[in-house]
Structure formats: C-alpha cells, structure tokens
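Same chain as my last thread, 473 residues:
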Amino acid sequence: MSIDTSIAPAGTALDASTEADLQQKAKDHLWMHFARQSGMEAGNGVPIIVRGEGHHVYDSHGKKYIDGLSGLFVVQVGHGRERLAEAARKQAEELAFFPLWSYAHPTAIELADRLADYAPGDLNRVFFTTGGGEAVESAWKLAKQYFKLTGKPMKHKVISRAIAYHGTPQGALAITGIPGMKEMFEPLTPGGFRVPNTNYYRAAEMGFHGSLEEFGQWAANRIEEAILFEGPDTVAAVFLEPVQNSGGCFPPPPGYFTRVREICDKYDVLLVSDEVICAYGRIGEMFACTALGYVPDIITSAKGLTSGYSPLGAMIVSDRLYEPFKHGQTAFYHGYTFAGHPVSAAVALENLNIMEEEGILAHVRENSPKFRAALERLKDLPIVGDVRGEGYFFGIELVKNKETKETFNEAESERLLRGFLSKALFDAGLYCRADDRGDPVIQLAPPLTIGPAEFDEIEAILRRVLTEAGTLL
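reply #2:
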C-alpha cells in the first residue's frame, strides 16, 4: 500500500526560491528543540511542514504524510478545523489577553468549570499553565507548600519511574527518569527518586519473574519500598503517567494503580497523575485515570486540551489540597503570564465541544482494539519484539533477537533509528517517532478521528520499512 502524493492541495507546495529562502533562514537563525543542529549546518536542510488537513500533513514540496504522532501527541481532533480557528478569532477580537493574577475572564472560568466536571472524585480546582512541563512544575511546588501549610514541612521529595519523561524545567527534569536528558543540566533541583517502570516485556531484567498481575503488585510495592527508604515524613508525591510514554508506551498491569493509591494513602503521599499525553481522549476518556479506575490527588495535563491549536495546560487539584489556600492571607505564589490565556481557553472549550458532539471518546474505545490488532500483525517480523499501549497510544519495541529479546547496543541503535528508520518512515509517508530513550521503539499516537482504513495504511508502511530495516541488521 502506498500514499498518494501526486496531487497536493492548491497552495501547499512552495516555489523553489521561497523554499531556498526559508532553508537559509532556518540554517542562520532557527534553533530546533530536542534536535541535532548538525543536519542544517551541513546544508541538508530541514523538513518544512506547511499545511495540515484531517490526519495528514503536507511538506513544502507538496508531499503528503500520515500524522502518526498527532504533531506531538497533541492534535486530537485533526488538522484544519475551521471551528477552532474561528473560536480563536472571535475571542481575540473580544478580549485578546488578560492575566489571571487576581483577575479572571469568562473563558478561563467556563473552562475551569468544564474540566472540574470531567475530573474524577473531588478534583474541583483548576490552575492553568501554558504547557505540560509547567503543569508538572506547578504540581511539585504545590505539594511542597501544601505540606508546609499542614504541619509537615519535611515532605518535599518526589518519586517517579525509570525512563519516565515529565518535562524540561529544572523541577520537572528532576522528576524525569532519563539520565541522558539530565546530566548536562546538573545539579538539578534535589529530591527526585526513581522506581522501576511497568514494562512487563523487560520485567525479568528488573529481577521479576511471574504473571502480569503479580508484576503489577511487585512494581507498585517498589514505590512503598522507596517511601520507606527515604522516610515517609520526607516524601511529598508520586508522579506517574497512566501509560508511560518514554521507553515505549508502558501500560499499567492490572491492580497496579489500586495498590499505588493504597500506598499513597497509607503514608500521606500525594498521587499525581501526569496526563500531559494521556488526557483528553488519548486513552478513551477525558482523563486516563478514569479509564484505569483510580482517583489521584492532582492531574497534570496539556497537549490535547486544545488539540494544539493554541498553547494551554492545566493542573487539576483536589478540594483537600485547595483547603489551606481558602483562608486568610495564604497564597500560592506561582503563575505564568500566559496561563489560562483567553484565546487558548476559548479554543479549548470549542475543542471539547467537538469531542463531545462527534463522540470522539467512544470512537477511541471502539477502535482501539482494531488499532492494536493491525499493529500486532507486525509481530511476524523478526525485528518486532513487542507491541503495547492503550487507546490510540502504542509502542512497537524493536529487537535484534526475538527469542532472547536481545536489544541493540548504542551504536546499533544510532544506525537503526537515526541512520535509517526515522528518515525511511518519513520518506514512506508516515510521520511518527523512532525513539531510543530506553530500548528502541516506534511510537504511534495519531489523531483520535482515524479508523480501520488508516490503521491498515499505517501497518502497511511500517511493514515495508521494518522489513527493509531487518535486512540491514
């Protein structure tokens, strides 16, 4: 199966002089994120994406690609939604900006009310940010202040999982469990500690042998072990993604979050559900903790809240944590200029309207098994070791030897992922992520509007490219 790239929408392709001008300006001035600049410096240029429509994006040459990553786990309802652009235009004309620093505006109020309705339990208080890392940073700061206000000033440490990504601010980076992303910025904010993740495919390497259900209890109990080792009077919070992103979409084993909730309650430790990726339909519910059956103390979120049409994040907090701030002169001295931006909040409200009107959550729940089945067909390839994930969020782990689960060394991973797969998949018409934060994986998180026909198309491209990759080993 191939992608039809012969006819691009009118105005998509740039003329040669405009392309050359943009490439030169990028080389001279643009500093890309999480990227090696050497490609541009060497004169190879950078792919320039100029248009999006539905689940496709188009580059400056007019070539079409399936957006297999929703931009960056963001574009839940697809590209080119005029309703979202119109919501932004209308709000900008009425009130383009006003801060939430002792003031409010209608769209932030309405959105806070809406998110509180969606959130489980007593998570009724919404603190806006402009992105996910800021939401995580806010949650740690809130946890520290909350315990100071409630007579437990030593509780400041946080526990997260190996290889987990929680953001790039100094605090959030200390919670992140990827050593290679941290070492160049050390010393970091003190207080971050790691426990094993829930990658059952690699459980034996963590020292565990047993069933999936037993693994869930074992992994959760490592959190209790860490709390006891550090001292319950010093640990403030546990930060966990419902489905861990980095490392390749690790879902929680049965019973895992039930046990984690018990542990947090026992030692008065806050459970933070980091749903920057997993919220707003990615796992089939507005909040993934609802889908997985647990109630956290804090939810951190961003990305899909606006489907990426405008930047916005949100930290959603329980009434218990808000209580000390309701009285006297107490304040949470923390905030961001553009947090809860009127235009972003208006876009978010319209995005949520679209998701409800079109039944996006039910669509994900209904089609997720079909997506999994399409990807699991790839397990007949020698290079594919494991397929895992939930909702519209899947990872494919690549191996050298399927029988032994032998993975690639650093040099082999470099050649496989950056030397071949990333470019080959893109050239074949699929934008996704080939990642080696942990073992080598391909990650897929397409817009929540796609269905079985697109699953088959994605599988066909992956099959062709991975088959070729297998011959290069």
